[in-house]
Amino acid sequence: MDDTFDDFVRGRGSALFRYGFVLTGDADDAADLVQEALLRLGDTWHRVIRKDDPEGYVRTIMARQHISWWRRRRRERLMADAPDRGYTDARLDGDDALWAELGTLPPRQRAVLVLRYYEDLPDAEIAAILGVSTGTVRSQASRALDKLRVGRRAALMEEV
Amino acid sequence: MRTEQDLRAALQEAAARAVDPADIADAVRVRRRKRTHHRRQAALASAAVVIVVAGGSAVLRGGGGGTPDATTTTTTTTTTTTASPTSAPASPGPDLRKLLPARAVWPGAVFTIPAEAPDGSRYSPLTALSPTELLMIARTKFWKTERLDVYDTGTGESRVITRMPASKKDYYQRRFEVGADYIGWYGTMLNGRKGGWADFWVAPRAGGAAVKVGEVTGDLSGVSAIGVSSDSFVWSIRPGGVYRMPITGGSPEKLAGTDGLWLSSWPWAVDVPPIRIGQVQDRNQSKLVNLETGETRAIIPPAGVKGLSCSIEWCLGRMGNAVIVMRPDGSGLSRIPVPSSYVLPVLGSHFAQMSGAVIYDLNTGKKAIVGVRPSGYSWEATSSSPLLSWEAGHGKLNVLNLLAVDG
Question: Averaging pLDDT over each range in A9-23, B42-56, B85-99, B208-222, which range is the top one?
């Protein structure tokens, strides 16, 4: 009945997985996140495609789901093992310090940075995706950038 | 102080490094089917809510998400880090602030093109055929591959090369490759027939109907790379070994002496298996073999190098925390101070992509930044595709055609 849904999953699964990976920092979490979001998309496929942006819908679900899962998983993990470990980077290469430090950010701050610097979205759109105000997006981004010691300068590549 | 561009690069590099689980589409289908089944059962038992909720939470893997999990399909992400406590500290990466955008460095090679074909289908750039011709995949709104077009960046016009033949529901085209006379591709079924199955197709590079070359099953269908010669469809299989099938049809035939070889870019084969993007390869390539002439070029890896991988012009490898480049004959050895524990294959004939967004011209030493936006990524690209593309917004794509870089 929904060939178009299968086409979409086949065509976009890989890109969505990568988005999930930068959101979560973990391949297993990313695979879970993508699958769950695609299942939800499948349930509402016919409604979503009328609006013509299934990909935006999935990416929104993934960003929100990431934040809420993180809360839940952290609880589980805190209960499971006492010596607390970071959420991410258990299996990352040691070389990339900036990537590893992203793993120390709270999930909402991380999601804001991913949406802003990986997805290249304007703050207003990020606010809509996460269901928060633009001011919150700015303050979360600013806090996250400070933590990562990223300076804000005039954008280097407005137009490449 | 780090810059926002460093952050962009870190995110893009991580995305490139993520091992792509091949089975997302399968997994979603299976789970959808199960859910539908559960729901029917549940409705019968008047307990729909409880069961659906249980099904929904099953995706959380027992709270152990931070630990390597042997049951997943995606555990290959990492592997070794070469750095030891005594080795040199990570070199600072290239100072991205000092790099110019590709459009400024190679003004004749960056083009802004429409993201849609004239008929409204979506365009994904596949590779470049010449300094002005781009091979594009045209897809439906929902990403089904419909045809191959050539877009001419000189004239702004596109023409149809070939249309994808009608196929069964679960069929999809896995990979395309451009030969001197033909464009070839292979396809498989989404769910994988028991024992494996693939079919091979070619279409004239100048344009024309797609011709089916043949089908294979079993080990022969585990394709690692394809190529098209003047008269044959050529492919290597995952355990190694290169095969051919005449374009006019016939039986698969193994090319003599290709045990332990994998096709790199026809007619060249190499003695290391292709890595999946994101996987770390430690083995060094030790030869390049020309399957047409039988010529073998030995490659001697410098001491301390890992993951050396060579095309006929250049090799890339890792040494400590840096990337090294050299000619296959060992000359021109130099070090690129990029902290990286993985190396992507050489792009085009003489380019390297590092830190996500930095493109190096290994011949001239020039480097530039591309704005790679992830949704523009195309992972089914051909071997050593001389084309990079990223979204430009407003229904446009930017492309860097490395064939149009003239020094």
Answer: B208-222
Residue B11 contacts A where some CB pair is shorter than 8 Å: yes
Which of A52, A80, A88 shows the shortest C-beta gap to B63? A80
H helices present in chain A, as ranges = 3-24, 27-43, 45-51, 54-80, 97-102, 107-113, 123-130, 134-147
Assign B246 to helix, strand or coil: strand
Extents of the domains making up chain B: 96-404
CA-CA distance, B71 to B61, in Å (whole number)?
10
Q: Is residue A49 part of a domain?
A: yes
For residue B103, the chain A residue with the least C-alpha distance is A160
CA distance A33 to A25: 12
pLDDT in tens, B348-406: 889 987 766 678 899 998 988 876 554 444 444 456 678 888 777 788 888 999 999 97
What does the alpha-carbon distance between residue A43 and residue B60 come to, in Å, rounded to a whole number?
Answer: 20
Both tokens of B80, joined, read 């070794």
Residue of A nearest to B99 (CA): A156
d(C-alpha A83, C-alpha A106), whole Å: 18
Find the CB nearest B78 among A30, A93, A152.
A93
Q: Answer whether A148 touches B (CB < 8 Å).
A: yes
- B172 touching A (Cβ < 8 Å): yes
Q: Which range of residues forms the domain containing residue A37?
A: 3-147
Is there a domain that residue A58 lies in?
yes
Residue A12 lies in a domain: yes
Q: Given CB atoms, is A123 within the 8 Å cutoff of chain B?
A: no
Per residue in A149-158, pLDDT (tens digit) is 887 754 443 3
CATH of the domain at A141: 1.20.140.160
Lowest mean pLDDT among A27-31, B199-203, B231-235, B348-352: A27-31
**Euclidean distance between CA atoms B115 and B15, whole angstroms:** 22
Residues of chain B numbered 277-336 and touching chain A (CB < 8 Å):
280, 321
Question: Tell me, what's the pLDDT at B114?
Answer: 94
- The domain B96-404 is placed in CATH, from the list 3.30.559.10, 1.25.10.10, 3.40.50.1820, 2.130.10.120, at 2.130.10.120
CB contact under 8 A, B72 and A3: no
Burial class (CB in 10 A: 0-12, 13-18, 19+), A136: middle
Decide if the complex's ipTM is over 0.85: no
Helix axes A3-24, B4-17, angle to 10 degrees: 130
Total domains in chain A come to: 1
pTM: 0.69
